[in-house]
Amino acid sequence: MSKYIFVTGGVVSGLGKGITAASIAMLIKAQGYTVDIIKFDPYFNVDSLYLSPYQHGEVFVTDDGGEGDLVLGHYERFLDQDLSENSNITSGKIYLSVISREREGAYDGESVQVVPHITNEIKSALYRLNNPKTDVVVCEIGGVVGDIENHPYLEAIRQCRGELGKGNAVYIHVTYVPMIEMSGEHKTKPTQNSVKEMQNIGIQPDIIVCRSDYPLDDSSKKKLSMFCNVSRDCIIESVTTENLYRIPLRLQEQNFSDIALKKLKLEPREPKLDAWRDMCARAEKAEASKKHLKIALVGKYVEKATAYRSITDALTTAGLLKNKAVAITLVSSAEIETDPKKLDGYDGIVIAPGFGVRGFEGKIAAARYARENDVPCLMICLGAQAGIVEFARNVCTMTGAQSQEFDAETPYPVVGYVEPKMLKKGAFPSAITAGTYLSKIYASPSTRERHRHRFDFNVKYEPMFLKNGLVFSAHSPTGVPEAFEIPTNKFYIGTIYNPEYRSRLLGTHPLFEEFIKVLGNNKK
Ligand code: GLN
Questions:
Q1: Which of 174, 259, 344, 379 sits 20 to 30 Å CA-CA off 437?
Q2: Cβ contacts of residue 406 below 8 Å, gap of 6+?
Q3: Ligand 1 nearest-atom number relative to CA 354
């Protein structure tokens, strides 16, 4: 049977509750236990299919095609473990399932209510992860205690402790402890109130993680311990840090995972964190060197850095592996359309994925700039579609070439759809063509990458592109082209799939590693 750790939030949102959940899961895994993780999101979108990245940042895609919150990416990267569509459950999914069952007449004439029907549905999503192979399930509840939307989840996890038994469930509450600058004093009252609110619901937190911009003094910790009914060693501080990956180490310095394991009646062991520590040390060294590789990330969601979180993480961690710090600038594709010279001075260019026509011509202009100036360029999904349209128009002189997504009547549908026209999402195999740069990069005749797109490179134009110097270097099992390169350029690669979803912290990804290597060699 699995044991459960519930992570809730108090005071304000955006405190790094997701990183705390990812950290506790990672630290427990580092002690040799098997873990799983799930996040509940209290909004009514059934999944992230129609969610704009402006809302919650990037949509993360799992192997099985689940479309979830960007925190799933952090979870996968912290845990180095594949998650599934069951790892992110929204209120939309919960209610949809209850209402669909009501329509099938499954409730025997009962009135269908939040308690017990919605709470039971939440619990069954939780208990689905309960199996003999998983020692600990970490569950993060989105939102903050006191939110109307968040209440059914807190009620469900309150019931869990009774059902699972005391030694099988632990509650971690993540709160904010502000400092009043003028007096230099930490204020514990918001946390006290937030814990009281949890107690009103019937949950006594076992561990409190206090996010603060400055280290907490002992008297604040004592006060929190006394007023919140939590022993002093269970008040864990989480001081704001630039380097996200330092957080689990800092938490562990305060025995975070050992405390949680003891409460679950599991024996703490020495966590294996050497690789993690090494990564953090590299990050600090790379930052201190001040010799950053300058990368332009061309996309349309420039106001929201988290819209491309997996890409920026993949670049940063590939940099660490090569002992290079990267400085990523989000460049608006619309601006490149009118002035491609804005890309002058960058060591490399990444053209981002996306949906919708806005900014597409700017991505085409960026691809042209990179190709003509031989600036190393990695194009992903919509970015790669822009690369293909650019090559067709400007090298193969196919005037009016376009993606059918934006012009169904184009004379040259170089990006088109393969029937049935549906969103291809999740991991699929690709065969890599021998002798290409891509096959050298992957050092393998095949790969399995995650996709999220409707449109594909049109195989009809493959001979034409080849004649003009662009090679398709990977294909789906049915022969649809999935990656291209221009062998005469240093690094000019586009992929219809999203390699960033499979980049991990300690393993990274060959495409990103090679990209960084080329940038580094170029800069010498
Ligand atoms: N909009 C494009 C398509 O559906 C690209 C999607 C993407 O970049 N993920 O094919």
A1: 344
A2: 357, 360
A3: 8
Closest CA to 516 of 190, 282, 256, 243: 282
Length of the chain: 524
Amino acid 524: pLDDT = 66
Mutate to test the pocket of ligand 1, among 50, 357, 382 (most ligand atoms within 8 A of CB): 382
**Whether residue 316 has pLDDT greater than 80:** yes
Query: How many Å lie between the centroid of ligand 1 and the Cα of residue 407?
Result: 14
Residue 182's pLDDT is what?
84
3-state DSSP call for residue 75? helix
Helix axes 382-394, 360-373, angle to 10 degrees: 60
> Residue 138 in 3-state DSSP?
strand
Q: What percent of the chain has pLDDT over 90?
A: 82
Q: Give the per-residue SS3 of 286-344.
A: HHHHCCEEEEEEEECCCCCHHHHHHHHHHHHHHHHHCCCEEEEEEEEHHHHHHCHHHHC
**What strands, in cross-sheet order, belong to the sheet with 413-417?**
402-403, 413-417, 455-457
Nearest atom (ligand 1) to Cα of 353:
8
| DSSP code, position 490 | S
Task: Look up the pTM and report it.
Answer: 0.92
Show the CA angle centred on residue 191, arms to residues 187 and 195, nearest 5°: 155
The pocket around ligand 1, CB under 6 angstroms, is made up of: 353-355, 381-382, 405, 452-455
Mutate to test the pocket of ligand 1, among 52, 58, 301, 385 (most ligand atoms within 8 A of CB): 385
309 vs 59: CA distance, rounded Å: 9
Name the residue among 110, 103, 112, 168 with its Cα closest to residue 139.
168
Q: Give me the mean pLDDT over the 328-346 stretch.
A: 94
pLDDT in tens, 93-143: 999 999 999 999 999 889 999 999 999 999 999 999 999 999 999 999 999
Q: Nearest 5 degrees, angle CA 88-CA 118-CA 135?
A: 45
